[in-house]
Amino acid sequence: MDMSMEVLERVLLASVTEQRRSRRWRIAFRFMAFAVVISAVLVNGSFDLVGEGDGREHTAKIEVEGPIGEGSGVSAEKVKRSLAAAFMDPNTRGVVLEINSPGGSPVAAGIIYDEIKRQRNIHPAIKVYAVIGDLGASGAYYIASAADQIYADKASLVGSIGVTAATFGFVDLMSKLGVERRAYTSGKHKAFLDQFQPRNEDETKFWQGVLNTTHQQFISAVKSGRGDRLKSAEHPEIFSGLIWTGEQALQLGLIDHLGDTDLVARDVIQQERVVDFTRKDSAFDRFASKLGASAAREISQAVGVSGIRLQ
């Protein structure tokens, strides 16, 4: 009986030992597989960030796609670097900004506008053409107005030269629910945008003044970019925030011609070969965003590659 128990113990011990070894190998294999994936992403992903010419003359293309602002589809920093790369390429014969955006941050739009103007001054021989796709509204049109010429499709939506800021008020609802708001501030108007406090007329007028000032900055930029082509004297509603089709925008002087990128490259710049200089996220960034978890951000920080780009 003792002999049988001893044999059974040895068999069980051997089984446990084998399971531990198997578990270690599985962990090691998974770690190695993960390391291979990360290495492949870093190596392969680092070569697709910004388009480069191959020694042949071309039209440079930069996409302005999605909401404008840091952390959104269109980052001012990315567009600036895309512009620099396109203008610095000795074989660039013209630059096309492919715009399809509802607008966004006036700060980001202003930064991009200024950079387009700066690059045009440095490289006067290289013309910039904004080509609006489905939508070139608000901040997107702000950017487009910095170009030498603006093109759009007859059905594109163009304009919306205005500023908006929206919020909600929950004062009555809180009262009905028996909820009391307790806010502690060190300035008289520090909480003037607080949704849970009654609206103050003086603060409302102040905030409207801020919006009006930003609107005037927008208008000044558009007038500077479009010049006499803009028929704002005959049509003051241009600056009212309304939006028009490309066909209507042409009559108002908001755009110069109807057409797309292919037409501009072929007939205007006369370089049908188009090279994309849009600054892209690295493959690791795309991989991490697909994971959609905080673990991805932690891995990115741990290996120190979150912000790596080729310049």
Automatic annotation (TrEMBL):
Transmembrane regions: 27-47
Record keywords: Hydrolase, Membrane, Plasmid, Protease, Serine protease, Transmembrane, Transmembrane helix
Give the CDD domains listed for this entry.
Answer: S49_Sppa_N_C (cd07023)
Q: Does the keyword Metal-binding apply?
A: no
Gene Ontology biological process terms from the UniProt entry: proteolysis
InterPro entries linked to this entry: ClpP, ClpP/crotonase-like_dom_sf, Peptidase_S49, S49_SppA_C
Listed GO MF terms: ATP-dependent peptidase activity; serine-type endopeptidase activity
Q: One of this protein's Pfam families, by short name? A: Peptidase_S49
* Transport among keywords: no
User: Peptidase S49 domain location, by residue?
Assistant: 126-270
Domain of life where this protein originates: Bacteria
Q: Which family does it belong to?
A: Belongs to the peptidase S49 family.
| Name of the protein in its database record | Periplasmic serine proteases (ClpP class)
Taxonomic source organism: Pseudomonas fluorescens (strain SBW25)
Query: Taxonomy-wise, where does this protein's organism fall, top ranks first?
Result: Bacteria, Pseudomonadati, Pseudomonadota, Gammaproteobacteria, Pseudomonadales
